[in-house]
Write a structure and sequence with these properties.
The protein is of the alpha/beta class. It has 11 helices and 12 strands. The protein has a 12-stranded mixed sheet.
């Protein structure tokens, strides 16, 4: 039996728990820039299960496992297997977001057997040079300039790994026709906006839905500025000139507006957090790898609630649920709408406050 979700101050119910399993990543994408090490006090498997159970009892029907790079977590399959018992209580979907570079066929098969429903893999370019740039491969060597031919070769190798990851996931039983396998790409003007059409063509050839994401001002490291944002409307217009599309709209509580290719070659989605915010029905709660709960992707570090006092041995499950309920009932975040409403020609930059980093929050 599904729980009745509490409503926040803007009457939005809790629906999705985004649980970060690690702040580490084997890549260094420029819009994310993860830490090289974990924060102190990582949650144990049992503590993560307690958080998931509490969220489900408060109405969360979707669990999305994130990072950093969640495939770095060796207990991933055990966690997915353990939460299957929550399905009769309202958990409908378990999803994973990954860069795909570590996704072997054996790993994909284990994830499917454990009970994972959906995989979204990230790729921000369709050739070696762009993949190397957008994955921060130069920064991983300590030399951002590097040898261009060597970096392009490394990017091509990473591209091959991610393309193989799609094949591995499909072979393991994740069916893109059912929405079980998708591709994410973040587009930055002047960095990879020339990859927009090649990425669409790649996704059409793979038979997967491409989800194009606007560059967002998450965290403090990514040098965000509005001029680097390629709006969803611009992306759709550019793609539509090449491949005509028909609008499908945005599902309630969804992040993406979807389009269908007129030639029948699948669908496209755009996430317009900057140009067309969807704060009004956002239903996502985020919990970091070290147990800090945030109610907005654009949250300040000080706004997080440390759940660890209610996750110690002997702690009351009821107290954890009530603490999360109180957090949600007092939620009133609508940062993207506020950003959009105050932005003027004279003041083009976002609201200035320190924000938690994307890799730490789980994207």
């Amino acid at each position: 039996m599904e729980a009745i979700a509490p409503l926040d101050r803007l009457e939005r119910p809790l629906g999705v728990l985004r649980l970060s399993l690690t702040a580490r990543c084997n890549l260094a994408c420029p819009y994310c820039l993860p830490d090289g090490q974990e924060p102190d006090g990582l949650l144990s498997l049992d503590q993560r299960l307690a958080v998931i159970e509490a969220a489900v009892d408060l109405g969360a029907h979707t669990l999305r496992l994130t990072g950093g790079e969640p495939l770095l977590n060796t207990a991933l399959e055990a966690l997915i297997s353990s939460v299957q018992t929550l399905r009769p209580r309202g958990l409908r979907e378990i999803a994973l977001t990954s860069n795909g570079s570590l996704m072997s066929f054996e790993r994909a098969k284990r994830l499917k057997q454990a009970g994972l429903d959906r995989v979204t893999l990230s790729l921000d370019g369709a050739n070696g040079a762009s993949v190397a740039q957008m994955a921060g491969l130069g920064s991983r060597t300590g030399d951002p300039s590097g040898d261009s031919a060597q970096l392009e070769a490394r990017g091509a190798s990473l591209l091959t790994k991610v393309l193989r990851a799609f094949n591995h996931a499909r072979k393991a039983g994740f069916d893109p026709a059912q929405g079980d396998l998708k591709l994410n790409a973040v587009i930055l003007r002047g960095q990879n906006d020339d990859q927009l059409l090649p990425l669409v063509e790649l996704a059409r050839n793979l038979g997967v839905e491409l989800r194009l994401i606007e560059f967002m001002d998450v965290g403090n490291r990514n040098d965000w500025n509005y001029e680097a944002v390629v709006s969803a409307a611009e992306m759709v217009e550019r793609i539509g000139r090449r491949w005509p599309m028909e609008p499908l709209g945005r599902d309630p509580n969804g992040t993406a507006s979807r389009w269908r290719f007129s030639d029948g070659a699948g669908t496209l989605a755009v996430v317009a957090s900057v140009s067309s915010p969807f704060c009004g029905d956002c239903n996502r709660l985020r919990v970091t790898a070290d147990g800090i709960a945030y109610t907005c992707l654009f949250a300040t570090p000080s706004s997080g609630l440390d759940l660890r006092p209610w996750l110690q041995q002997g702690s009351s499950r009821h107290d954890l649920i009530e603490r999360l309920r109180s957090l949600w009932l007092n939620r009133e975040d609508r940062y993207s709408e506020e950003r959009k409403s105050i932005r003027t020609v004279a003041s083009p930059e976002p609201i200035q406050h320190r924000r938690a980093e994307m890799a730490y929050l789980g994207g």
